[in-house]
Structures
1.
Amino acid sequence: MAIESNKTVRLSRQRETILAELRKVKTHPTADEVYDMVRRILPRISLGTVYRNLDFLSSRGVVLRLGGAGTQKRFDGTPEPHPHLRCSECGRVEDLMAPIHLPSLAAEEAMGYTSLRCDVEFVGICPMCANSKM
Ligand SMILES: [Zn+2]
Ligand SMILES: [Zn+2]
């Protein structure tokens, strides 16, 4: 019994650390990058534990999971849907800090869907990659 409760406490501490580290950055890190950040605080944590906790947190809407098929999943400590910019050259993902009009939800309604959220991602070339090509 005592061992069980110890295990639970340790798991929640790992989860809290993962969440706290993710919320510190605006870089939308991959699971591997989150692992590198968390390992500085919890040197014994495994990559599998980081993956499992990120899955858990994103399935409960505590963090956002970004990225579709063919791209590495990235994680965002801001759970509210917000528009992103992704660089097709270096893969960086940034929050779009400019007001935009989100697409109307009428299209989904016409198809009989109830919209839960709308993910907006612009794909382009970031200024640093554009400059390095000149
Ligand atoms: Zn770039
Ligand atoms: Zn974001």
2.
Amino acid sequence: MKTKKRISSYPPEWLHLVDTLIPSYVKETYSPKPAWRLKPFSEVDTSFFSQSILALSALFTEDRPHKVPAYFQHARYRSAYMLYFLPLSAAKFLNLFRLHEAALASLLPLKHITILDLGSGPATASLTLLIFLARLDHKPELTIHLVDTNAHIMRDGEALLNRFAEHLGIKLTVHRHASTFWEAPLPEKIDFTILGNLLNEADAPRAKQAPFWQDLYKRSQHAGILFVEPAARSSSQKLGSLRDSFLETHIKSDNPATIWGPCLHAGKCPLATGRDWCHFSFPSHIDGKLFKKFSQKLGSERTWVKYSYLWLASPHTPALKINNPDIRLVVSDRLTDDQSVLICEPKTARKIIHATARRGTVISLKGVIE
Ligand SMILES: C[S@@+](CC[C@H](N)C(=O)[O-])C[C@H]1O[C@@H](n2cnc3c(N)ncnc32)[C@H](O)[C@@H]1O
């Protein structure tokens, strides 16, 4: 992708988003006292909002995956999400956009880009995409469709997007659709669809699933469809099963070029059921003064970015794949002292011995002891 600068760490646009734009918007919109609203974000604010961050963090970890209450109905949880969980989730999108720059490169020739952000929350995925697009030599015009069952958080998302786009000099139109994702009106053609941390909260009813995915896939152009989910076994295996049914029912091809990642093959996912599951973790800190302060209040510095994901290519823009039958994706950490790891193959995850392999790396089987 032709960018002004390759993103090697967190770019200045990121810092503007997480340390200036979000805190000022949250303070302006969610301070309990009107007199506080236009004052800079202070230590008192950090203490005030960290109460809700702590409560939301407990709710996420304690209640999931059995019961996910409608947390965005409450103003305190919307503000908590934007200040802390939005950067946490955005770091995952940023990581994936960097890993699969080739998928995003298909957006490059477009003068106008249509994005669909399903389960958008405060537009986390779209905001992160703006960081990427802002670094292009020519800035395309954007239309972003936000879909979420919660109208309040989408309104926040729209406000953040408009402010960020103005700051970046990007021309943007936002449409909000308060709806379940499977009932939302889909644009005729979609250049990129993102579903961020949605499926672990929401399942379409069985009868609606196939027609919805079929329709979404048919309308997908250019950068295809990206699903990002938590790294937990249940969400990862749900994604693995969805991948298999996509390949069987809608894609109907065993060509690896139908998937940008993480899979190198389009055979059956070996980790969609069973003890192990497909997820990735990268050592990384999350940049931002405020994020650091909230992490300290939570008593947990984030040192890893973790997620499960699936990036489907659109039916018109195949993924670029290395044509080498000897390469495999490593899908486990080191298993024992014998330096063995699991590698992904259709239907099975095979154990091999490899001195340098680690989760998420691509290795060659040439010279490997089995
Ligand atoms: C964990 S948040 C993720 C927000 C954002 N995508 C991110 O990654 O930060 C999940 C979002 O999905 C929304 N949601 C839950 N069930 C939904 C459904 N059936 N259809 C559409 N959105 C839904 C919630 O309201 C919430 O905004």
